[in-house]
Amino acid sequence: MQSIAIHAPSESNIALQLLDSSHTYPTQTWKLNGKSAIRIGRLDDNEVVIPHQAVSRVHVMLNWENGAWRLINVGRFGTLLAGQSVGQVRIDRDATIQLGTAGPCLRLLLSEKSNEHHGETCEHPIVTLADINESQKQKKVAEIADSDFFQQLQKRARQMREAKNAFGPEETV
């Protein structure tokens, strides 16, 4: 779990800003003071509704726990913080997240001193979808290839090939 280490706010006050396409200026703001749970996504019954194709119906949950917000990704497109994919992360200070690799950015404002133009932009390095998929694919392939099940499957496939070869070449009719 990734953690941002700065002093936590004393209350569950939070404002969320949907950022423009330059990922700099807010286009919409939600002030959600006193809430202990906030859902963000496309569904109309979320506290923060973002009708964007890269946003899941319920994409992110924010829960107030032990004096800080915990961001939990529940969407299928992922959530990025500082360009890194996160599953769960404790948010102790103002931050900017991106909903999916091609989705909109939200600025999370925890302090009352945060002003309209915060200056922090959505950090998403230029990475192609092919790069992401290749990296994830290589990691998953290594996990699968090292598993006992896969090793047994390979052994059984060798046995079947050897048995087939023992009968000679197949004849076609």
Q: How would you describe the overall organization of this protein?
A:
This protein has helices spanning 129-146, 148-166; strands at 2-3, 15-19, 26-31, 37-41, 48-49, 60-65, 68-73, 79-81, 84-86, 88-91, 95-99, 105-109. The protein has 173 residues and is of the alpha+beta class. The strands form 2 sheets. Strands 1-10-7-6-4-5 form a 6-stranded mixed β-sheet, with no helix packed on it. Strands 3-2-12-11-8-9 form a 6-stranded antiparallel β-sheet, with no helix packed on it. The longest helix has 19 residues, at 148-166. It is elongated and about 80 Å long. The termini are far apart. Residues 1-8, 115-119 and 124-131 have low confidence and may be disordered.
What would you say about this model in short?
The protein is an alpha+beta fold. The chain is 21% helix and 30% strand.
Following the backbone from N to C, one meets helices and strands in this order, namely EEEEEEEEEEEEHH
Instruction: Give the strand tally.
Output: 12
Fraction in beta strands: 25-35%
State the share of residues found in helices, binned by percent. Answer: 10-25%
Radius of gyration: 23 Å
Mean pLDDT: 80
Largest sheet: 6 strands, mixed
Please give the count of helices.
Answer: 2
What is the first-to-last residue Cα distance? Answer: 61 Å
Which parts are unreliable, with pLDDT below 50 for 5 consecutive residues or more?
1-8, 115-119, 124-131
What best-fitting shape do the alpha-carbon axes yield?
A: elongated
Task: Supply the helix-strand structural class.
Answer: alpha+beta
